[in-house]
Specification:
It is built from 18 helices and 20 strands. Strand 15 and strand 16 form a beta hairpin. By secondary structure, the chain is an alpha+beta fold.
């Protein structure tokens, strides 16, 4: 009886392996057949568009250097995207992991349509994992003669639980690799790179929890570096034009126009857009007074698109990030919302501590995180890190938050991915310090060497690790304690603060599962 069951199990596994190989082969043939024609970034001109005229004098005054401005306020982050789309006269190249069909997503959809109507070429590259709910909207956009939408590592089955579930089963390993890059490039003159996707929670339009996030606005040579990364992905074998995957109804584009116009006139849009208009940062941007640094070195780097196929390991971003941090002599401050260091990461940070380097980490508390499973991957490493002298701070879900970016929301969740080294250099991007960013997702970001930019980023770290915003973790007789200085008198917690027994128990159960490599 046992032998018969083992033979049956072996036959099932063999059938799955064969079916998976056939599925991969079939998909590869399909992808090669429908692969879109190669296109490149449109060259810049001296004085052809509003962005040319606004930005060219700045870059000409700083030859061979890139301008860099940190965009921390969520309203400013929405505005810089909307206003550059409005000013674009040549091209918009947009690359995102998530683009929600919510208020801010629809408002930016509207700006893309208006730009395309003016003759602007729009290339929209999205990761496919979160795009299926927007298929009808995306194919409508794709109907516009000046807009093309392509998907990274898409599934062929666009609708139906059974078909897509079967494809996930047979192509599970390859579909697990996602494009996490975020870039907004207007007229080849300005690029916005960082941690934000497109959606209400990234732009302070959500009514419950909004993200604390960070972008870098770039001018000059760094924009061309960002364009080269976009072109490499756009033309890669992992990317398929949306029209090869889904078809739109004849009236889809007209219906989309009506929908986004309706969103712009909605009761929610008016107060939101008024807040954007009244933001001091937005006014500074409109008046050409946005604070900019001109670092001695600004480099935009990305994982190669081949990482989506598990290839190109020598060019993976982790191979640039680790040396940039390991060269620290005095201090390293890391900001990562999803922080799963693993044993190798603990050893790496412990090595810095043994050299006398101060190491601080800001991440989400369990109450603030939006991904409980990731917290379960982080939790077991807190005691080993604290024993090595690493300082750990966990963002509170609420508290004395002073950011205008949290106006109107009832909570906060960290989404910034950044680090600052020795007060002299740093990084802002999409890379989390977790196994998924290291090995599975493609990531990108900007490395800079500049004391002023580093000081601005360091001040953000100090603000968010202050007692008003974060719990500081410590050990007492080998046990974890969370010091809460946001209340009077200060309080010390002996368990995960701000959450109930059920959620704490869920984390413990997840810790037992072999899922760390997927987090």
């Amino acid at each position: 009886m046992m032998a018969r069951k083992l033979r049956l199990l072996g036959l099932i596994l063999l059938t799955l392996v064969i079916a998976s190989l056939v599925s991969l082969y079939s998909y590869g043939r399909f992808a090669a057949r429908v692969h879109g024609p190669a296109t490149q970034a449109v060259p810049i001109a001296a004085n052809a568009t509003a962005l040319d005229r606004a930005i060219a004098p700045l870059t000409e005054a700083h030859p061979d250097r890139s301008g860099l401005g940190l965009v921390s306020d969520n309203l400013d982050a929405f505005a810089i995207r909307a206003l550059t789309a409005q000013a674009a006269g040549r091209s918009l190249d947009l690359q995102y992991y998530i683009w929600h069909d919510d208020l801010t997503g629809q408002l930016l959809d509207r700006e893309l349509l208006r730009a395309a109507d003016r003759g602007v070429r729009v290339r929209l590259l999205l990761d496919d994992m979160n795009a299926h709910g927007r298929d009808s909207l995306l194919v409508a956009l794709d109907q516009h003669p000046n807009i093309e939408v392509r998907m990274f590592n898409p599934s062929r089955n666009r609708a139906g639980f059974l078909g897509r579930g079967m494809e996930m089963l047979l192509r599970g390993v390859s579909l697990n690799r996602r494009m996490h890059n975020k870039a907004w490039i207007a007229d080849g003159r300005i690029a916005v790179v960082g941690g934000r996707n497109i959606g209400d929670e990234y732009f302070d339009a959500a009514t419950d929890t909004n993200f604390l996030d960070l972008d870098a606005a770039l001018l000059g040579p760094a924009v061309r570096q960002t364009e080269a990364i976009f072109d490499a992905f756009w033309n890669s074998g992992s990317v398929i034009p949306l029209h090869a995957l889904a078809r739109a109804d004849e009236n889809a584009l007209a219906e989309l126009r009506a929908d986004v116009d309706k969103a712009q006139r909605s009761r929610r849009a008016a107060p939101y857009l008024k807040r954007v208009e009244n933001s001091p940062g937005v006014r500074a941007f409109v008046e050409g007074q946005m604070p900019l640094h001109w670092p001695a070195s600004t480099q935009v780097h990305s994982d190669p698109p081949e990482k989506g196929e598990g290839n190109g390991g020598d060019g993976w971003l982790i191979n640039r990030l680790v040396p940039a941090v390991s060269g620290a002599r005095e201090r390293v401050w890391l900001i990562s919302p999803y922080f799963v260091p693993g044993r190798d990461g603990v050893t790496w940070l412990a090595g810095l501590r043994r050299r006398g380097v101060e190491v601080g980490v800001l991440t989400n508390s369990l109450a603030a995180t939006d991904v409980t499973a990731v917290h379960s991957g982080y939790a077991p490493y807190r005691v080993p890190l604290l024993r090595e002298g690493v300082k750990l701070y966990e963002l509170m879900p609420r508290g004395a938050q002073e950011d205008s970016s949290l106006f109107g929301s009832s909570g906060a969740s960290l989404h910034t991915k950044a680090f600052v080294v020795d007060g002299a250099s740093g990084f802002v991007g999409s890379f989390n310090l977790d196994p998924r960013s290291v090995s599975l997702n493609t990531e990108m970001g900007v490395f800079f060497e500049d004391a002023d930019t580093a000081a601005e980023l360091a001040q953000r770290y100090r603000d968010k690790t202050s007692p008003a915003h974060s719990y500081q973790l410590r050990l007492a007789d080998g046990k974890l304690r969370w010091d809460d200085g946001s209340v009077t008198p200060p309080r010390t917690w002996d368990h995960e603060p701000g959450v109930g027994l059920w959620r704490r128990g869920t984390v413990k159960v997840l810790e037992w599962l072999p899922i760390e490599s997927q987090l």
